From TrEMBL:
InterPro entries named among the record's database cross-references: BTB/POZ_dom, SHKBP1/KCTD3, SHKBP1_KCTD3_BTB_POZ, SKP1/BTB/POZ_sf, T1-type_BTB, WD40/YVTN_repeat-like_dom_sf, WD40_repeat_dom_sf, WD40_rpt
Highest taxon in the source lineage: Eukaryota
Cell location: Cell membrane
Gene3D superfamilies the record matches: Potassium Channel Kv1.1, Chain A, YVTN repeat-like/Quinoprotein amine dehydrogenase
Protein known as: BTB/POZ domain-containing protein KCTD3
UniProt family annotation: Belongs to the KCTD3 family.
Description of how the protein assembles with itself and partners: Interacts with HCN3.
Amino acid sequence: MAEETSPGSSIICMFKKKPCRGFFLGLLLIYFYVRHRRFSTSKQTLTWVPDSFFSSLLSGRISTLKDETGAIFIDRDPSLFAPILNFLRTKELHPRSIDVHLLMHEAEFYGITPLVRKLQLCDELDRSSCGTVLFNGYLPPPVYPVKRRNRHSVAGPQFMGGRSGPVERAPVRRSNTMPPNLGNSGILSKAAIEEKLPGSGLGADPGMVRIICGHHNWIALAYAQFVVCYRVKESSGWQLVFTSPRLDWVIDRVALNAKVMGGSLGDNDKMVAVASGTEIILWSICADGNGNEIGVFSLNVPVEALFFVGNQLIATSHTGKVGVWNAVTKHWQNQDVVPINSYDTAGSFLILGCNNGSIYYIDVQKFPLRMKDNDLLVTELYRDPSEDAITALSVYLTPKTSDSGNWIEIAYGTSSGTVRVIVQHPETVGSGPQLFQTFSVHRSPVTKIMLSEKHLISVCADNNHVRTWTVTRFRGMISTQPGSTPLTSFKILSLEDIDGHGGCSAGTEIGPYGERDDQQVFIQRVVPDTDKLYVRLSSNGKRVCEVRSVDGTSITAFMVHECEGSSRIGSRPRRYLFSGHGNGSIQMWDLTTAMEIAALGGPTEEELLELLDQCDLALTRTPDMSPAASLTHTSTPRTSTCRYILLTHEHHYILDRFMFS
């Protein structure tokens, strides 16, 4: 009988009628049909492992289904049944020719304890709790903080006079070692916090890392209801320096300002802010690690972007609102703009890409001078020739530019898929930027764009389809038009969980990450519940490395950040990948080393298919990458067919799956 072509599908076997050589226990010969394959062995082979599936089957404790010849039918994968049967015969295992994890699952089902132990040993040899050479450090889950008393003051016995006392610091490790078994005493755990979190719609997991952001040698981690900040020093490594009180709502955005160029601002030198819905809370962090709540502000509409420009905290919403808090004036101001789809910063300028096809700018440095007329001076910089919505925006300041922006290059993408590059030369300051080049290669709205020293990179809503071009510069300025032929084309396939499980899309942005004068990278998490990330070059899609959680926990957030070099002569900044996990921990990976030693391909077709097979597609969908032009949402049909196209270089694979919302 022929072997079925899809061993993983659930197909009821139709048995052929053929003469049976006998199902005679007296002769110790037993026949099996495992799906469409026929196996024969002896009772002695099957029963030498006590209390297994087979001993229960042959003793009658498990009911059996037999065909007309007496062969026992087992509805399992025949390709995995063969090595299990071979182990029962020979007590030998050849791990290089098998998938250890899949075979371990089958061995556990059949109750073959000796095989399970051997496979666990093989897995431990392949995976080290100390991580690979790229594993750089581990930050354990922080202590769960006290609840914030009200919306205008920080609560808790350790806070006095509006300023906090010393925060409790969790032990931090730099070396490649696993943390001790911390248990649940004072550490984030579902057992300790089982309440439903308000504002999440579903029960957000309070113990998982939702968002990671970095600035200079600091990182901020947002959990469901509080934020913590770490800083790294050359001698002492990473230290926990600030923990916010526990809030009443779920954090959706976080922003960190750890260093202001050009001088110190005293108490406001280091700040962290979080947003949920329409509200924002801002704290200052003192040099000794103490924290002080600056205030609570409202944008009056949902906050969709939260970031710092210098010491100004900026919040924007696609509905057309911009909010600014200035550290000098201690003043918060909202202003209406046309609906906003994208933004970028250049020096002290905030550049906005809007739904009406225009690019506007605000000089936030002049904000304190405009208090009397209460105007942020929103000025139109450029209007798209087709007046398509500006859905992605990237500003490149050349080495000859100053903060006033006398030489500026902007790449932007539109809702129609068009990519344009505009340039403002010093001699054209009076007339505004001039159109440099147009690319009409995307068929879907452009969702991300990056103009760097050597490349122009665009991503559209078609399953994160990436196009890249080479940029030629002379003395740091764009000199000739990028070639009309893209450098490469690839996809960063990423499925998102529609249930969310308390997750946050702000914590799983694919990138590109990195400084614009260096090679940038994409981070690919193919399926939501995974312990594996792929790091890929943004210029050509080649795989830099693959990182896997050292403790097997799922990765819930990630971010790439460069930390400043040490004080030693010749020291340079190093790039790290920070991964946040479902158990609340942070793991760090050395991407500088990875980019020096590795240049593999992207995830192979086999790897993508294997990941998708392990993922319950009934709970996943591709993320909605269309620009948010309004707050209206269309209803989702109860049952729909979703086609995922996996494209890597010249190979094409199409998967048809059913999804149930």
